[in-house]
Design brief:
DNA-binding, homodimer, elongated, Tetracycline Repressor, domain 2, mainly alpha
DNA sequence: CTTGCCAAACCAAGCGCTTGCTTGGTAGCT
DNA sequence: AGCTACCAAGCAAGCGCTTGGTTTGGCAAG
């Protein structure tokens, strides 16, 4: 049932199983339409028992988001460190983000994007700080590439356009289709560096 | 208060005012967190009175989506008809979509994207049919451009990437900033036809 | 100009149900 | 003994929607 999400090694604790189930349900039905009774039922406990692990339903949502941001920031950092040639580094970043969005953390990432406003403003700020670290990695890389003349337009805007392209992919990409994620990464990279 | 949305000439009927208020609230708080009491209060009537105009809360959401899809399909059709040169036509389509997403129908478009799953499956299908007409206009145009050698990659994938780019714009674009929508349209067009 | 009428628009009240969360207590492992 | 994990029961609040009745504006007959 809950194949994806995974996120990390935290998974076989009661808390980890709750987070996995919650991420799955949140993506399927949305945060508001998912009840604590739904989450409890999908791990086989009573609804009240959830509140021994999280102090509120919103806390579960925040925990899902925090985990996935941390995990994917690490992945991005590794991708960046693994390449030195400019264009290869850009391709590595795009691949990493595609992996985040349609691969192992697809469910939690979808929740991060679509259920953002279900967080209190305070928790939104905290998550935004974590997200800013992720974005700074991108901007550092893009600024470097821009400085080396790999592309011409404003790196800040280019980053926004890449975010849009990769963020929309889960809505149409077919994992069983003939187009691979690496192919797609190349096509996206070509939107930045040109078809040369 | 409710400056945007507009959508059409239907606006000064009770129904039109309810749709405007609903679109605004749905974008602000989401469909589930918006109560019929909220909507009623924002047009100055009692909550029960809403059900003389719509038979359910979900019907309000569907009406908002239907109106905005029709309106923006017309706009796209006009944009396409107004240009004959390939690249100019592409730019016209991008401009039209940006106008839809961050201009006059921004609120209703945001609702269309984020509250999609709040519709029943039956209404989702109906909306999807309307949306398909819109998408077919894009594909026709992109296929023509592709045939004329304006770009090389698969038109179908390119359309998906454009959808992502333009769809994300409302999340970062600053209408008071120095970057205009036309500038942005040019930058996006350049992602398709190259920087030549 | 008045009168009688009707449909659209609305109100006041509340029903029935679901929701997130609390409470007080128990089973089992260390 | 004490801790983690859990159950059974239920409370208070909020939800979409219904109901029965009242106001309002327009319009044709007298």
């Amino acid at each position: 049932m809950a194949e994806s999400l995974a996120i990390n090694g935290i998974d076989d604790s009661p808390r980890g199983r709750l987070l996995s189930a919650a991420a799955h349900l949140f993506r399927d039905k949305g945060f508001d339409r998912t009840t604590v009774r739904d989450i409890a039922a999908s791990v086989g406990i009573q609804s009240g028992s959830i509140f021994h692990h999280f102090k509120s339903k919103e806390d579960i949502l925040y925990a899902v988001m925090e985990e996935v941001i941390h995990f994917n920031t690490d992945r991005l950092r590794r991708a960046m460190a693994a390449e030195s040639r400019p264009e290869a580094q850009l391709r590595a970043l795009v691949r990493a983000e595609l992996q985040s969005n349609v691969g192992d953390t697809a469910e939690a990432m979808a929740v991060l994007v679509t259920e953002w406003r279900c967080l209190s403003e305070e928790k939104q700020s905290k998550a935004l700080e974590l997200r800013a670290i992720y974005e700074q990695l991108w901007l550092d890389a893009l600024n470097a590439l821009h400085g080396q003349g790999v592309f011409r337009d404003d790196p800040f805007i280019i980053r926004r356009l890449i975010t849009g392209m990769t963020g929309w992919v889960p809505n149409w990409f077919d994992r069983e289709g003939s187009l691979t994620l690496d192919d797609l990464a190349d096509i996206i990279v070509r939107r930045v560096v040109g078809e040369a």
